[in-house]
Design goal:
single chain; alpha+beta; Glutathione S-transferase Yfyf (Class Pi), Chain A, domain 2; 8 helices; about 55% helix; globular; binds glutathione
């Protein structure tokens, strides 16, 4: 049975998983639930949250546990313990970064706060991220070690989450922008981004935020 991913029809917490599966050329199937279907499904799940990933009898919930499983399976977790520690640090950093922008997107006062977030909080966050990126001792153009690892997809997803909100902030961080371009130029990622498989919507509907529930048109 092919690996199977269950989530909503949005990028959200499943997107890094999809990117890893796509990059590794893994055939997989998906079931994408609507928000309306969710309460019925929720009642059937052991942990009551998505994403859930299955591989035969193996069932994994928690998006980052799924990413790390795939990283171990596809040798995308660095070459030694130092690389793996760096992967873990980068991963946790992007959990925080994603929570940061997520909290802002979900804030009922989104419109009132957007200027301050765009001009103060987001640049401060991006400055810290760029510093971490540039501190990779291997200086490889990836976030950890000398080659691609799963955390590159967590990082790419975060940067792509920032894009519709503030492309101009992304443009101010040249090393991060170059990294983003490097990942989205990989043949398997180019193919995925241009395919019907890529959900068009960032996240589930959020009352106050224009990016929730609204498909990207470009
Ligand atoms: N730490 C979990 C969080 C999972 C999570 O919050 N999933 C959300 C969707 S992004 C969910 O299932 N929300 C519906 C609910 O909790 O009822 C992970 O990374 O997988």
């Amino acid at each position: 049975m092919l690996p199977h991913l269950i989530y909503f029809n949005v990028r959200g917490r499943a997107e890094a998983i999809r990117l890893i599966l796509e990059e590794t050329g893994t055939a997989y199937t998906e079931r994408r639930f609507t928000v309306e279907e969710w309460p019925t499904l929720k009642a059937t799940l052991d942990y009551g949250q998505l994403p859930v990933y299955t591989e035969g009898d193996l069932v994994i919930h928690q998006s980052h546990a799924i990413c790390r499983h795939l990283a171990r399976r596809f040798n995308l977790y660095g070459d030694d313990e130092a690389d793996r520690i760096r992967c873990d640090i980068v991963e946790e950093t992007f959990v925080d970064a994603q929570n940061n922008i997520g909290t802002f997107f979900w804030n009922p006062e989104f419109e009132k706060l957007r200027d301050e977030y765009e001009h103060v909080q987001l640049p401060a966050l991006m400055t810290r991220l760029e510093k971490l990126f540039l501190s990779n001792p291997a200086n490889s153009g990836y976030w950890a070690g000398t080659r691609l690892s799963y955390v590159d997809f967590l990082a790419w997803h975060f940067l792509d989450y920032v894009r519709p909100f503030s492309q101009k902030t992304l443009d101010q961080f040249s090393a991060l922008a170059a990294f983003k371009h490097r990942i989205e130029s990989r043949p398997a990622i180019v193919a995925y981004l241009g395919s019907e498989r890529r959900p068009r919507t960032l996240t589930v509907p959020v009352a106050s935020c224009p990016f929730g529930g609204t498909p990207e048109t470009s």
